[in-house]
Specification:
about 120 residues, two-stranded antiparallel ribbon, flat
């Protein structure tokens, strides 16, 4: 018999291929149902609106979106947008394409300079 702790509440439980105990699993299901119903009834709602109305945290709502549990959302306005180009992203402030562009621009604009240290070694900057 494998015994483990619930990841959410820490209660000792029998391991059943789930990280949550039965009570936490039921509360997760109830919260998901509440969020899903609110998003379905209020299309185009923002994350703060959904969070305030349902009591779910921003992180939980974003997790549901990433896991595609909120497939009823036609207009993906709940997901954050890239600050540079405006495309929808799932994590962070800037999309991967803009990050690559800024990185390559940074490499081009700052050429590597070689300097000599006090010990006669050459060092790049």
């Amino acid at each position: 018999m494998n015994v483990t702790n619930c990841k959410k509440c820490g209660r000792v439980m029998q391991y059943n291929h789930s990280e949550l105990c039965s009570k936490c699993t039921d509360s997760e299901k109830d919260l998901y149902q509440k969020v899903r119903d609110y998003v379905f009834d209020h299309r185009g709602a923002t994350i703060p609106e959904v969070s305030e109305a349902t009591g779910a945290s921003r992180a939980v709502i974003l997790r549901y979106l990433r896991e595609d549990k909120l497939s009823l959302v036609e207009n993906r306005t709940l997901l954050p947008k890239c600050k540079s180009c405006g495309t929808l992203i799932q994590i962070g402030d800037i999309c991967a394409d803009c990050t690559k562009k800024k990185f390559t621009e940074g490499l081009k604009s700052s050429p590597t300079k070689k300097t000599t240290t006090g010990f006669g070694r050459t060092r790049r900057r």
